[in-house]
Description:
α2 packs across α5. The protein has a single domain, classed as Cytochrome Bc1 Complex, Chain D, domain 2. It is built from 5 helices and no strands. The N and C termini lie far apart (70 Å). Helix content is 52%, strand content 0%. By secondary structure, it is mostly helical. It binds heme C.
Amino acid sequence: MRLVRMLAPAVLALAFNQLAVAAGSAEKGKVAYVKHGCWQCHGFAAQGGVTGPKLAPNPMPPEAFAAFVRFTNGAMPPYQKAILSDEDLADIHAYLQSLPKAPDYKSIPLLNP
Length: 113
Ligand code: HEC
């Protein structure tokens, strides 16, 4: 019983955290993606650029995405909460998730003479 009482807040915090990360708005995320300069390295359509890899379609899961963006210590600068809010981060993820896959080249007549 004591254990349940001790663990309940942690379980709740985890559940709500996941909700907070998952409940982004793709529309606002598109704006946040541009505002925070992600496009400078990853391209306007998140297709990848000279410096940054492609981020869409199929971005990494929200938790991994948030952890990477906040704590990366490689070639990409980390974005802490003070400059990129949790809300903007979740919105950016939702935007990346909303980007469609490129069509199969076999469905494009011009590429299949
Ligand atoms: C100054 C250039 C630059 C900017 C600006 C930038 N990134 Fe990156 N990003 C990189 C580079 C370079 C990598 C690969 C580095 C690595 O793997 O350590 C990367 C990797 C990533 C990855 C991991 C991709 C993968 O598949 O491993 C994510 C997610 C990401 N960036 C998201 C973002 C978001 C979101 C923003 C805007 C808030 C942003 N980046 C802004 C350069 C940048």
